[in-house]
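CHAIN AND CONFORMATION:

***
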Amino acid sequence: MKIYTLLLGMLMPFSLLAQSNFKDGYIVKNTGDTIRGKIDLREWNINPEYIDFKAADDTSQRYKPANVSSFYVQPDFTYVSYSGRVSNNHNQFPNVDKERDTTTLPATVFLKELESGDRLSLYALTDNVKPRFFYKENGKQPVELNYYRYYYLDRNQEMVSQGSAILREEKFYVQQLLNLTRVHPDWGNYSLQDFEKTAFNERDLLRLVRKINGQKEIKGAHGQPAAQFYVGAGVVLARTTFRTVSSSIAFDDVSSKPGFKVAAGLNFFNNPVTRKVIFRAELAAEFLQGEAFRSALNAANQPETQVYQIKRNFISLSPQVIYNFYNANNLKINIGGGVAFSYNNYTKNGISDDAILNGSAYYATYELSKFIVMLPLQLGVIVNKKVEAAVSYTLPHRINAEQLTGVKMSTTALTLRYAFN
């Protein structure tokens, strides 16, 4: 653990050097002028309130929606400025209104462009209240798509029970889009069922708008994979400690011998472009070994050193969260952790033959557990989004079942991973 802490302490200053992620892009000012430069691309789980723009002469300036009409940042992010009214109701279960709320508030915001079509464009606005969606006909202003969810007492409607009240859903957005197609019967190739099955989320609305535009559905977010498969291998050192009330089965701490591991898994990205937060699912096999020693008297009352050997092999499934605190495009430094659920098999668990005098003595071994839950931590470096080198540490975890003896193991590993996309 000291090695892990030391490495973390040495690398933490890097997090202060690059909290920005400038990508090529441009802004369009309200005058219509286009200025090229670099824009600081963030996670933007909610729409940005401003952007940091670096011009060709390396001067930086912050722009808000009132200052620009739109901006673009590579690889494929476009935001447009919108000044108008936005809905104020809550429609994301379980945070829904107690009654129908049709109030709106004035706002000047950036809308994220999801689709720019010859007929219709689709935009998204997500803030701390809820996600909203807007459509736009060519030459006109964006219009918000309306969706209501609220509790209601009239049981004659088609609703879902929720305690003493009833949860009502009003999909006005379906009617809004359907009305557009009736005005323009030559638009797209779609059916009434396409509208009826469209839920109020980005994926469904995007699919419907693309059908209205006569386009094929495009998979993936901005051309970037949302998941990544990898394989890996590494060297592992295990440390076993003994805590016991019985001196007859007490050993000093185990000295480690190098073991090894192989792994495969999937990385899921919160944002496929920035890849700052990674949700990881890893399947691994590890092969560990070690020896413990103690001084004792043999049958001839002569001092000898007795050797306890353990070989532990296990497979584990580990969900983890990885955070790139240094997040440049081709170099990322991360910390992470998770939970590992392991199934264990022990090929050695006892006194080695050469420690027993003429085979006449026998010493009790330990009842080791088959199923063990572990807590892994890691400090890693990712190069070119494909190669990762990580130092990991698994917190000490109990591996035996006896009450009088506590046998715990911790592991330190150096693992190399290679991703295929």
Q: What stands out?
A: The CA atoms of residues 75 and 96 lie 36 Å apart. The chain has four helices and 25 strands. Confidence is low (pLDDT under 50) at residues 3-8, 10-18, 158-163, 353-362.
